[in-house]
Amino acid sequence: MKHRSLILALFVLVAILVVGVPLFLRTPIWVDVTYHDLSAWNILHGGTHYKDVFETNLPGMVWSHAFVRPVVGWSHEAIRIVDLFVVSSVVFLLSRLLKRSGVSISGRIWFVTAVALFYLAETEFIHCQRDGWMLLPAVGAATMRLTHLSSTRSLKWTVCEGLMWGLAVWIKPHVLVPALLVWLMSLRFQTRRVAVRDVGWLVGGGLLAGGCGSVWLITTSTWQPMWDVLLNWNQEYYSWSWEDMLLKCRLLLAYFAPFSLLHCASIPLAFVAVFRRDASRAILAALYLGWLAQATLVQKPFDYAHYPPMLLGLAVIASFRLPVGPVLLGWCLVGGLTNEFARDHRWFRGLQRDCRITTKAILPNYPMLDCNRLAHWGRCWHDDSWELKDQLSFYAMIHCAPNWADLNRVGEFLKTKSLQDRELICWHDSTHPLYVELGIKPGIRYPHVLTAMKFRTKREQIKRETFSSPARYVVSDLVPIMSAARFGPFPPPGPATELPTEFPTWHADFYPWNQPVVYRSGRYVVHEVKEPMGEIVLPPSKAIWE
CB-hemisphere CA count at 13 Å for 401? Predict the structure, then answer.
């Protein structure tokens, strides 16, 4: 029976990888990834982070991109291969923790299968993100603590553990929450004398990571610009309220339906593990609960912050030798096949109408069983076109997900203009990949201009920097302004050197739409900067159509 379970698990895992990996690799990357690419490209070409490319976070992810991009290249597929390596390494380390909890090889393969079912089929919003890459040093540090917990610990390994937590902090300081819970949990399995000695060397390793990063910041003149952002900007970026907390808690089970429902099982199991004497389960549970707490209560409610606790939650359930893999496989098959083959049946349409939330949360259409998506599987082996990436994207016509084919045509047009550093401004989130494609530094330091505008007290400063820029051209995106539902076909047709006739009449008063149009490709508009003037903040949404 065990052999049959192992064979079935291996067969299912191989099938998922064969189907899922090609589609995964050809799916386009999210705008955050191109943001880190731009930041890495800037420092690799002598630029100063924060000063030349604005960021509200610590520079750990930018360092990661600056390290791997020159090695693997700058394509979407290259960074996704690195992401697969990171996730695979995390899964390998978690599998070792499961082994220590007595989980059989069959159970561990089913755990890997469950991760593949989840991760390969999710949207580009969670791939190649900081939280996932931060998980690798964090799980590595937790594994080190567990490995040496019951034996005489070597000081060098304690320092290495602290170093790994420190590396994770450079990506996001939020990791200190699970790090603290893992350390507190380990005290149950240590003598007081060992714990006192241990904490000093652990902190020393973290300070070593902090010191090395600080040396880089100082020697590259990045120290002062970073602290200017952290002290003078971030107070407006991060906000807290009880209403936000309640909303974040309510969203917990909605991020990755139906997979998010596993928290209903993993949370109580984690609390059970905390009070047992199994050190491996207890450390894993502390890591999971700490990570879930910081993702839910500290971070903004974005999907990418919640996918690491999904992996940890799967591991918690698997550590109790529960069949998480077969259950998720059956769930995906039932939901996917029902949506694929029964979507036009009267009873299913009635169920969707009467139980809309239930069908969306419990029986969603599983992407690896979507015939429209699977139809592109054969092309993934030989076609690296932008058109294929557009067809594989999970997001269409939203401001933070480019239309890659149209954006590529804009890039080809701008290449004829022989642009130099700072002669181009990419105004909207979806346009800044052009900087790396053209090999030039940004005309202003805000790749996410709309995000920068959230800093109300800094709007005049942003305006001054924009109007004093030597930029010759500005690229804007119609999607944040115009509603496809209002105008029918989108992008709207029209001359390539004019704004659409449906564009709001206020454009003459707002930069960059008051600058002459020299080229348009789909949703993207290229403006030639003649006389920078006007307002840079969009009017209230109610006034847009007046």
Answer: 17
Rounded to 5°, angle at Cα 448 from 443 and 453: 100
Hey, what are 424's tokens? 């181009």
What value does the mean pLDDT take over residues 26-51? 96
Query: Would you say residue 313 has pLDDT above 90?
Result: yes
Residues 6+ apart with CB under 8 A from 43: 49, 62, 66, 220
**198, part of any domain:** yes
Element (H, E) at 475: strand 473-477
Q: Could you tell me if 122 and 219 lie in one domain?
A: yes
Local confidence band at 542 (pLDDT 50, 70, 90 cut-offs): very low
Tell me the CA distances in angstroms from 389 to 83, 106, 124, 401, one per residue in order: 17, 36, 11, 11
- Domain contains 523: yes
What is the residue-averaged pLDDT of the chain? 89
Tell me how many domains the chain contains: 2
Peptide bond into 22 cis (omega under 30): no
pTM: 0.93
- Scan for tokens 């805000």, then name that residue: 446
Regarding whether 204 and 58 lie in a shared domain, the answer is yes
Given a cut of 50, whether residue 544 has pLDDT beyond it is no
CB 524 within 8 A of CB 405: no
- Does a structural domain hold residue 360? no
Please list, in sequence order, all residues whose beta carbon lies within 8 angstroms of the beta carbon of residue 26, skipping any fewer than 6 positions away. 76, 77, 376, 379, 380, 383, 384, 388, 389, 392
Task: Give the domain extent around 247.
Answer: 29-323
pLDDT, tens digit, 9 for 90 and up, residues 361-416: 677 778 898 889 999 999 999 999 999 999 999 998 888 899 999 999 999 999 99
